Automatic annotation (TrEMBL):
<dbReference type="InterPro" id="IPR007117">
    <property type="entry name" value="Expansin_CBD"/>
</dbReference>
<dbReference type="InterPro" id="IPR036749">
    <property type="entry name" value="Expansin_CBD_sf"/>
</dbReference>
<dbReference type="InterPro" id="IPR007118">
    <property type="entry name" value="Expan_Lol_pI"/>
</dbReference>
<feature type="domain" description="Expansin-like EG45">
    <location>
        <begin position="38"/>
        <end position="155"/>
    </location>
</feature>
<dbReference type="Pfam" id="PF01357">
    <property type="entry name" value="Expansin_C"/>
</dbReference>
<protein>
    <recommendedName>
        <fullName>Expansin-like A2</fullName>
    </recommendedName>
</protein>
<dbReference type="InterPro" id="IPR007112">
    <property type="entry name" value="Expansin/allergen_DPBB_dom"/>
</dbReference>
<dbReference type="Pfam" id="PF03330">
    <property type="entry name" value="DPBB_1"/>
</dbReference>
<dbReference type="GO" id="GO:0005576">
    <property type="term" value="C:extracellular region"/>
</dbReference>
<dbReference type="InterPro" id="IPR036908">
    <property type="entry name" value="RlpA-like_sf"/>
</dbReference>
<comment type="similarity">
    <text>Belongs to the expansin family.</text>
</comment>
<dbReference type="GO" id="GO:0009653">
    <property type="term" value="P:anatomical structure morphogenesis"/>
</dbReference>
<dbReference type="GO" id="GO:0009506">
    <property type="term" value="C:plasmodesma"/>
</dbReference>
<dbReference type="InterPro" id="IPR009009">
    <property type="entry name" value="RlpA-like_DPBB"/>
</dbReference>
<keyword id="KW-0732">Signal</keyword>
<feature type="domain" description="Expansin-like CBD">
    <location>
        <begin position="169"/>
        <end position="251"/>
    </location>
</feature>
<feature type="signal peptide">
    <location>
        <begin position="1"/>
        <end position="17"/>
    </location>
</feature>
């Protein structure tokens, strides 16, 4: 990635003024979780194991050309007779093309918004009036999103070699278990011990690829950016020289950065992770 483009990314991040306001919307649900497994993010059948099955398809402003894949958002429905104050946390695995609702979520996530004993009553709503924590101010090509941290139980960032990869000419990867509140906006790859980096291009969703594949064992570096800050994350030994399609490799690093934003919270203080 060129120095100019990196500076541009950090500039865009630094001048985005976000708020932490609660947003009003509606949420529908998929009657079958399988509808989210073939989603635009490219996680495939592995998605069912993410976030306890509390998955979501997000509208384009939150999907953000795939940068929003893996992001978590806290959603609560607004009927106090059947809905809890804290709601539930969902993970984005797909694109929602229906602008009538900001999210379409799994039925498990929909019921998780309920107070004890009222899950079936919430499900009967079909489409629920909700509020969620996120910012939607768009600057250039980026959305500043007040996503909440995903809880991956201490798992490191992981790289999965996509089935479409063709060693040694083509490498496609997807990225799992990204913590914190930042977005990965750039990925580079190099042979372990080399400083000759090649950039990957976002193919779609969480899938990044390159036709310039270094030989031998591979290292990666990622640019994460949100709010005021942006930085490199280095994973110095990820893929072995005999990497194989379909295998998930541990990067040995965790992304835990929290987005810094230029304003004060504007919710009522009742938002807490469940």
């Amino acid at each position: 990635m060129s120095l100019f483009f990196l500076v541009f990314l950090l500039f865009v991040s630094s001048v985005t003024a976000c708020d932490r306001c609660v947003h009003q919307s509606k949420v529908a649900y998929f009657s079958s979780a399988s509808a989210l497994l073939s989603g635009a993010c490219g996680y495939g059948n592995l998605a069912i194991g993410f976030n306890g099955g509390r998955l979501a398809a997000a509208v384009p402003k939150l999907y953000n050309n795939g940068a929003g894949c893996g992001a978590c958002y806290q959603i609560r429905c607004k009927d106090p007779k059947i809905c809890s104050k804290h709601g539930t946390t969902v993970m984005v695995t797909d694109l929602n093309k229906n602008n009538q609702t900001d999210f379409v979520i799994s039925s498990r996530a929909f019921m998780a918004m309920a107070i004890e004993g009222k899950a079936k009553d919430v499900l009967k709503l079909g489409i629920a009036d909700v509020e969620y924590k996120s910012t939607n101010i768009v600057l250039f090509l980026f959305v500043c999103g007040d996503r909440v941290p995903c809880d991956y139980k201490g798992k490191n960032l992981a790289v999965r070699v996509d089935e479409s990869s063709q060693k040694p000419y083509y490498l496609a990867i997807s990225i799992f278990y990204q913590g914190g509140q930042t977005e990965i906006v750039s990925v580079d790859v190099a042979q372990v011990g080399s400083s000759n980096w090649n950039f990957l291009t976002r193919n779609h969703g969480a899938i990044w690829d390159t036709s310039r594949v270094p030989s031998g064992a591979l290292q990666f570096r990622f640019v994460v950016t949100a709010g005021y800050d942006g930085k490199w994350i280095w994973a110095k030994s990820v893929l072995p020289s005999d990497w194989k399609n379909g295998v998930i490799y541990d990067t040995g690093v965790q992304i835990t950065d929290i987005a810094q934003e230029g304003c004060s919270p504007c919710d009522d203080g009742s938002w807490k992770l469940n």
